[in-house]
Amino acid sequence: MDISLYFEPVAIHNIIDEEHVHPNHIIKYLSVYTKDKSFPSLEETDIAIFGVNEGRAAIDNEGCKNAADHFRKYFYSLFKHHNIRIADLGNIRPGNSINDTYFAVRDVVASLLKKNIIPIIIGGGQDLTFANYLAYESLGKIINLVSVDNMFDLGDPESPITSKTYLSKIITHQPSYLFNFSNIGYQTYLVDKEAINLMDKLYFDVYRLGFVQSDMEEVEPMVRNADMMSVDISSVRQSDAPGNACATPNGFYGEELCRIMRYAGMSDKLSSLGIYEINPEYDRKGQTASLAAQAVWYFIDGFYNRKQDFPIKDKKFYIKYRVVIKELQNEIIFYKSKKTNRWWMEVPCPSRLKSKYERHYLISCSYNDYKIAMKEEVPDRWWQAYQKIM
User: Cβ contacts of residue 377 below 8 Å, gap of 6+?
Assistant: First the structure.
C-alpha cells in the first residue's frame, strides 16, 4: 500500500528559519516529506511522526486541526542526543467526511505497525484514538490502551463519535480487540460516579490525578503494560498548557507529562502514541506546542534507551519469586529483570487461550505489588487481568 497518497508535504519554509538551524538540531536528522523531498522510504525508520489536520469532532476545540505545524516549530529546534532514525511523513489530509479521515489514519498506522515502526500522531481531536485502535483490529491484535486524560470520554454510546465519546465506541465495538483500558490522571469532579463504577465493573484500571502525583514511579508499570497511548493535552494544568479550549486549573505539571512520556518510550511493548487537542488559537507564545515537543523528545529518549527485557524468554536474566496466597488456593509468580529491576506478574491462563492472550497474561507491575502479595493480599492488577482471562 502506498500510504504517501494520504499525505500533504510539510511546508517547512513556513515553520523554520533555516539560517538559524544548529547542526545538531533534530530537523537536521529527520527524513521530512516536503515539496522538495520525496516521501521517506521508511526502510531504516524506527519512528514515524505525522499530523492529522482533523478537528470536526473535537468538542469546543476544533482549532486543534492546526496543531501539527504548530508542534513542528518547536520540535525541529530541539537537540538530538541519539543516532535517531525518524521520519516526518507530513500531514494526513482531512477526508470529505470524518470517517474518511479515520480510514486514512487506520491504514497509515496499520502499515507502519507491519513494518515495526512506531507511529506518533499529532492531532487533531482525541477521537482519532478510535482510528488508531482500528489499525490494531485490522491486524487482528488484542491490545491494552492507556489514556492520559482528566476524564474518561465515555459519553452516550448511541451518539456520533466525538472527542468526548470515543472511548464508548472502542469499548462497544465488535468484535472487540481491547483487553484492557487504563486511565492515568482523571479528576474526580470531572467524572460521573456511574462512569467510575462502570470502569470497576469492566475491570479496567483508572487512577486519580492525586494518586498518580503522590508516587510517579507507579506510572511506569501502568504505561509499560500498554500497546498504545492516547494523550489529551487538557490532562496538563492550564498554567502549563493553555493551548486547549477545555483546559482546567488542575492537572499534571509539564515535567510530569514528560516523565510519563519517557516511561512510555522505554516500554518494549508500546507501539503507537497519539497527542491530541492542542489548539494554537488558545496557546500563549507557543507554550503548549513547546511542551508537546519536549514530551515527544522524552518519548524518543526513552525509546532509544529500551532494554528489550519483555517478553520474558531467557529465564537466566530474571529472578523468579513464588508467593502463595491462601485465598486463591494458588500462587502468584513474579519475575524481576536483572537488567532493569523491573517487575512482572504471571496470571494463570488456560492452554486453549494462551495463543490469544500470549501478550497479556504476563503483566507489568512494581515492587509494591510484590509487597502486597507478601501480605497475602491479591494485587489489583493481577486480579483484574485474571477476571478478564478466566
Answer: 325
